[in-house]
Amino acid sequence: MISRLIYFSILITIIAGCSSPKNDMQGENKYYREKHRLQFHFSPATSWMNDPNGLVYHSGEYHMFYQYYPDSTVWGPMHWGHAVSKDLVHWEHLPIALFPDSLGYIFSGSAVVDSNNTSGFGKEGQAPVVAIYTYHQPDMEKQGSIVFQTQGIAYSLDNGRTWSKYDSNPVLPNPGIRDFRDPKVFWLESQQKWIMSLAVKDHISFYSSGDFKNWKFESDFGAELGAHGGVWECPDLFLLGDKWILLVSINPGGPNGGSATQYFVGNFDGSVFTPIDTKIRWLDYGRDNYAGVTWSNITDGRRIFIGWMSNWDYGNLVPTDPWRSAMTLPRTLSLEKIGNEHVVSSKPVVEVEQLRTRELKISSSSDSQITLNPNGENLYELDLSIEAKTKVEPFKIILSNEQQQQLIVAYDPDNKQFTIDRDGSGDNSFSEKFNGIQEGPFDNTTAIMKLRLIVDVGSIELFVDDGALTMTSLFFPDAPLTQAKFVQESGNIVAGSNYTLQRSWD
Ligand code: FRU
């Protein structure tokens, strides 16, 4: 059957005073303007980056540390790079926070504000920021040892600008397990102790401590539960609504191949995590959201998440230079009850809305397919409601450029799924593993569906029904995909807005 094109009517509203960032269109401001450089996502200016680390809010700043190898654009001896932001959208780069030492590379971990000075690192009433991370000793690994991963701590008394490593590191030696890493710590107020979640090969181990230096084993979780197609990494345990959520990244073994993040919904009594069921849940069905964790010490009640927007299947090969990798947009997590299901929804933090400049109102009644950013840049958002008489009908949104490169987001109610097809969207020559249609299950049973789609040069983030389904995907087009066609065989009425977004790296 020949598909019918729904035509959009367009009404333009200029939201902000100006529609394009100063100087950019003339090419005068070359900062962060390389080919495929994302314009409002965090990426390092140069060199290799992977997981977000040490996410902590302190003294008006969101800190983001990250796995960083300053000497190359491929993974290597890990440092903690560092950036801060006041609004989660504009980032300031700071010097490297933690360098490898004789105990090893500095792998992933977390940071907290030790308000009660339990660690004793505070001075003159000033609470220390304490970081805990994995030491990975490469020489021991080469020599065939299996105890090369341990946990170390460091602290800062100047809001993360400089760090001192604890002189009795490691604080948690290796008990004889190869994969023993990525400590994520929080203060359990009701029991006055720190809780650490640690990824241990195929399960999570919980430890507790009163002083950050001595850790007691509490329990293991998950060897028999959840997805096990690869090693477990980067856990995070936190209360969301009335349930405890345990995030666990896994590589490989994601729902669409390679790296992905699963989560468990349950209860935690300070020692043992008990899931409410045995269901496997994924935080994001796209291929490019891995190792994500949440900020500690946020005081406005939000639980904010950010992930590494790549996949170990091809992260070292993507065609960018002189840097590799970006983070996802920061997202607010919430626990929703959908039917009988507990679902962790992800939405971009509201601060992202400050990037909107021009609004085009969209409705499917008149006569044009639309150009998504009149400035010609691949920086835009589509915010749509899709409505049918009884149940949303199949549709496709095709984003394309003049070179016929296209990226297709589709919904199929029979298969109960969304798909993202990036195979024809640009350069995919760097890895065969980059190809293949990504599927995200979504059983829409109502007459209306909300869709939000955010594009930044070479990333697409799809949020369906306020983030009940999320899919994040990279692509590498030769020119912006600023033409949008909404294709369907019947029935849906489409309305909403297209926003032009501005860059955040001026
Ligand atoms: C996840 C991960 C972590 C590890 C880090 C090393 O992407 O493999 O388990 O700490 O990356 O860079």
Secondary structure layout:
Elements (H helix, E strand, L loop, with lengths): L3 E3 L1 E7 L32 E12 L2 E9 L9 E7 L5 E8 L6 E9 L15 E8 L1 H5 L6 E8 L7 E2 L15 E8 L4 E8 L2 E7 L6 E6 L9 E10 L2 E9 L8 E9 L4 E3 L5 E2 L7 E5 L9 E5 L14 E2 L6 E8 L2 E8 L7 E13 L1 E2 L7 E9 L7 E6 L5 E7 L4 E5 L16 E4 L6 E9 L2 E6 L4 E6 L8 E6 L4 E9 L5
Parallel strand pairs: 3-22
Antiparallel strand pairs: 1-35, 2-25, 3-4, 4-5, 5-6, 7-8, 8-9, 9-10, 11-12, 12-13, 13-14, 15-16, 16-17, 17-18, 17-19, 20-21, 21-23, 23-24, 25-36, 26-35, 27-32, 27-36, 28-29, 28-35, 29-30, 30-31, 32-33, 33-34
The chain binds beta-D-fructofuranose.
Beta-D-fructofuranose (FRU) binds next to β3, β7, β11 and β15.
Characterize the biggest β-sheet.
7 strands, antiparallel
Residue share in β-strands: over 45%
Q: What's the structural domain tally?
A: 2
Question: What class do helices, strands and sheet pairing give?
Answer: mainly beta
Shape: globular
Number of helices: 1
Mean pLDDT: 94
Percent of residues in helices: under 10%
Q: Write down how many β-strands occur, each being a DSSP E stretch of 2 or more residues.
A: 36
Uncertain segments of ≥5 residues (pLDDT<50)? 1-10, 16-26
| CATH fold annotation of the largest domain | Tachylectin-2, Chain A
Q: Distance between termini? A: 48 Å
- CATH architectural type of the largest domain: 5 Propeller
CATH superfamily of the largest domain: Glycosyl hydrolase domain, family 43
